[in-house]
Amino acid sequence: MLExxxxxxxxxxxxxxxxxxxxxxxxxxxxxxxxxxxxxIVSASRLHRxxxxxxxxxxxxxxxxxxxxxxxxxxGDGPERNALEVQAEKLGLAHKVHFTGAVxxxxxxxxxxxxxxxxxxxxxxxxxxxxxxxxxxxxLPAVVSEHLFQSDLLAESPHIFRVKQADARVVAEGMKxxxxxxxxxxxxxxxxxxxxxxxxxxxxxxxxxxxxNTGMKRVIASGRNA
Length: 226
What we know:
The protein has 2 domains: 23-189, Rossmann fold; 194-226. It contains 7 helices and 6 strands, in the order αβαβαβαβαββαα. It has helices spanning 23-33, 53-66, 81-90, 108-113, 130-137, 168-184, 195-214; strands at 39-44, 70-75, 97-101, 117-120, 142-145, 160-163. α2 packs across α6.
């Protein structure tokens, strides 16, 4: 068995220069959609059954009945797209749900920046979902499946709302609370999950391993004297 001292966990890192709050860019997307003044929930993932977007739609339909000024922006593409569009139509939500289709990494930030809160009702066991970290980086609170972030420092974040993803009423309530939190502002990505912190941690680990194996100190980190 591998010794515990030899195991190192380094979280995923998000490019916080690309994913950052940008109200002006967000307003541009809202203008194109004609969603001025609306509260926007966004999901960003592959449209696969395991990602639980269908569960999000069911919950959104309940939220919309209570709070008519909400919209649902579904970013991504995949095998479930047609089924999800049919579901939205049957729920009477076609005019309040927009499917972007596939978007590039360069385009993704603007869609997140246009939203007020993130929704990710995945049924899949995820490690540390990048889409949620990216949402936090642009300043969005996030409603996520209850099995996410259980042993992570984000489990205690006031900007993360963990819900039973299969319970539409609970998810709808989570979205309502997230929108209330969004009005207060303050959501942000902890520095531990920035790309810079991730890179620095890797380099520090490599330096430590090099020193342990050679008995020599060697600084290999970019931006520091080698």
